[in-house]
Specification:
The complex is a heterodimer. Chain A is of the alpha/beta class. Chain A is built from 23 helices and nine strands. Chain B is of the alpha/beta class. In chain B, α1 crosses α5 and α2 packs parallel to α3. The chains are: A alpha/beta, B alpha/beta.
């Protein structure tokens, strides 16, 4: 029972081994003998082993002995300074609360514009746009493959005309906007910039984020259109354009959220996201961009899953890893290059269809972890999202969750409140070590693009997700209301989106095609195709195309003709 | 003579790329001794119906999280009938509002499995349904 073996903590990536032994002080040995042993004899612990949700073993008690050689100045530091363990700003949420940025979008641009303005009026401090599947996949609302899908998972945007309606009465100069779009990201960004121009907003001051992270599409979200090389070219085009034209805009949100949703562990989420980040840095540098100029504009996006402390450790480790990588791998000298900025979303995959009001609690606890982990921006899920897109009622509770954390709990009163906790610092070290293991494995494969081509991250995720499901099916992992504490269900009122959205979009597209100059559209699409065949930055060509009211589908098709399309090798 | 294995087609119809569930079910059914063919992403009802005929499957499992089920399912059921696949068991998993379930069952879908279903429940259902 008492570990008398002296040892050092070892790297654990799968959590299959028990928590490694470490040295016991005389006092701890005495505690084990005099106080712990009688307790265990009277009542053994509830489980043989306690692990994080990712399977990492957790010991009963953490003491200074778990941190041999830990140097607070080197490993913890101060907020706003390397290694950024405690946060990237010296005052963190005392200085400025995280942006309350609720992901929203459904139906037509009018529907979403209304929800945007409602959420802003309710106190959210930034916008985040969900697009429907046709838009995400580069199809117009009236394309045959769009049937049944228009406006269902997000807003239908087929042209600049729709984008203009989306941001009606929303001054882009004053509101930061995030857009969750990947393969057609550059196209949608061009539309956004066109609307900003129409509104008279100064691009140099425009602030917001484009998700635009194609690597995680191949790994997890699977909303790819084109093969990896031309897709990376498009992404780097946005970086290059962003450095020159939109210095305050994040042209990418390098994402772990989706990797986690696909079933990865926390360490995999962290490692694959940061290694994706490094891949983008390398591609950018190969383009000739200055690491200290473009990397400060790259942002990140993590999941906030159920295991409270594992998530907090993950965010702290993320900052430390990124700083180290930027300095050691790329010689970055700008502190803004070193400081990892991230948005967080609470875990959609943790929400249950059963007893949906329990989801309010899950979301609140997950949000709390993100705040304690030092997030810059946060989306909280709605209680009904295992059933449908959120109703206004549910979306309001989700926003209030953040406001309550911010104003009623006191957790924002000090920076990095958990800093110095033996448990949290140990877990941060271990999560970091586990992530570096994966990062180095991917390095050895030649980088993330080669790793994706041999399906390495995809297989790791499939394995982790299956392992988790087996544990749930066996009731080794309890999900309240689902495999335990089950009760008769009451039907929930959910948001319904019907085919009238598709019909409206079809009418508008007919009108658009009739009103615009076909000759001009064709001319600009030809210019785009020609540029795509060469090496020019495509952003100016996309900007021209969207301003002629070429549609999302037409533009993406022009690029399909040049780049081809991608089919994955399915791993089950 | 060995008993013929149950043949299952797991399909992702429509534009949605979220395949975590489909892949887990495919593996669970394989582990339960069934022969499983996974179509991969972005299949049209035509592609799924053709694959079902070609692979001569006993069961088709559709994974739909996109809200497009009221369009996709009737189209698939019609195609299956046209191709004479009247005995195939069609199952749906994913995000399906309860209000839509009766119509889906009316159209011939044998069962709809919502979030929270265990893989064992699906295996048991298939075995019972095919009485093997």
């Amino acid at each position: 029972m008492s570990d008398k073996v002296k040892g050092t903590t070892t790297t654990i990536t799968t959590g299959d081994a028990p928590a490694p032994s470490r040295e016991l002080s005389a006092q701890e040995r005495a505690w084990e003998e005099n106080t712990l042993r009688p307790t265990l004899e009277k009542s053994p612990e509830r489980q043989k082993e306690f692990t994080t949700i990712s399977g990492y073993p957790i010991r009963r008690l953490y003491t200074p002995a778990d941190l041999p050689g830990w140097d607070p100045n080197r490993d913890l530091g101060y907020p706003g300074e390397p290694p950024y363990t405690r946060g990237i700003h010296s005052t963190m949420h005392r200085g400025r609360l995280w942006t309350m940025r609720q992901f929203a979008g459904f139906g037509t641009a009018e529907d979403t514009n209304q929800r945007f303005r409602y959420l802003l009026a309710q106190g959210q401090t930034g916008l985040s746009t969900a697009f429907d599947l046709p838009t995400l996949m580069g199809y117009d609302s009236d394309h045959p493959l769009s049937e049944g899908e228009v406006g269902k998972c997000g807003v239908a945007i087929s042209s600049l005309a729709d984008m203009e309606v989306l941001f009606d009465k929303i001054p882009l100069a004053n509101v930061t906007t995030s857009m969750t779009i990947n393969s057609p990201a550059a196209v949608i960004w061009a539309m956004y910039l066109a609307v900003a121009e129409q509104q008279g907003a100064d691009w140099k001051k425009l602030s917001g984020t484009l998700q635009n992270d194609i690597l995680k599409e191949y790994i997890a979200q699977k909303e790819y259109i084109y093969p990896p090389e031309p897709s990376m070219r498009l992404v780097i085009d946005t970086f290059e354009f962003g450095v020159k034209n939109t210095p305050k805009f994040n042209p990418i949100s390098i994402s772990g959220y989706h990797i986690r949703e696909a079933g990865s562990t926390a360490i995999q989420e962290l490692a694959f996201t940061l290694r994706d980040g490094m891949e983008y840095v390398e591609y950018g540098m190969r383009r000739g961009l200055d690491v200290d100029q473009f990397v400060p504009q790259l942002s990140f996006f993590f999941n906030a899953h159920n295991d409270f402390f594992e998530e907090i450790a993950k965010y702290r480790a993320a900052r430390r890893i990124w700083h180290k990588a930027m300095v050691e791998r790329y010689g970055a000298k700008n502190p803004r290059t070193w400081a990892l900025r991230f948005h967080t979303q609470t875990a959609g995959c943790s929400l249950t269809a059963q007893q949906p009001y329990n989801n309010v609690v899950r979301t609140a606890l997950q949000a709390m972890a993100a705040v304690l982990g030092g997030t810059q921006s946060l989306h909280t899920n709605s209680l009904d999202e295992a059933w449908a897109l959120p109703t206004e009622f549910a979306a309001t509770i989700a926003l209030r969750t953040q406001q309550i954390i911010a104003h009623e709990t006191g957790v924002t009163n000090t920076v990095d409140p958990l800093g110095g906790s033996y448990f949290v610092e140990t877990l941060t070290n271990e999560v970091e070590r586990g992530a570096w293991d994966y990062i180095e494995k991917i390095d050895a494969m030649g980088g993330m693009v080669p790793a994706i081509e041999r399906s390495y991250p995809q297989r790791e995720i499939a394995e982790a997700s299956y392992k988790y499901q087996v544990a749930v099916d066996k009731k080794e992992k309890i999900i309240v209301g689902v495999n335990d504490y089950v009760a008769p269900e009451k039907r929930l009122d959910i948001l319904q989106i019907d085919e009238s959205v598709a019909r409206r979009q079809a009418e508008r597209l007919s009108k658009l095609r009739a009103d615009r100059s076909k000759a001009e559209v064709d001319r600009r699409l030809n210019a785009l195709r020609k540029a795509a065949e060469g090496k020019d930055n495509l952003m100016p060509f996309l900007f021209d195309a969207v301003k002629s009211y070429a549609t999302v589908g037409e533009i993406c098709d022009a690029l399909r003709q040049v780049f081809g399309t991608y089919e994955e090798v399915a791993i089950t | 003579m060995p008993e013929k294995k149950i043949r299952v087609l797991i399909a992702k119809p429509g534009l949605d790329g979220h395949d975590r569930g489909a892949k887990i079910i495919a593996r669970a059914l394989r582990d339960a001794g069934m022969e499983v063919i996974y179509t991969g992403l972005r299949q049209t009802p035509e592609m799924i119906a053709s694959a079902a005929v070609q692979e001569d499957v006993d069961v088709i499992g559709l994974s739909i999280l996109s809200g497009a089920h009221n369009t996709i399912c009737p189209q698939l059921m019609t195609l299956l009938r046209e191709k004479g696949m009247n005995d195939v068991t069609v199952l749906v998993g994913g995000i399906i509002p309860e209000a839509d379930i009766p119509a889906m069952k009316q159209s011939g879908i044998a069962e709809i499995f919502l979030p929270g279903t265990s893989t064992q429940d699906i295996v048991t259902f298939i075995h019972k349904r095919l009485a093997r």
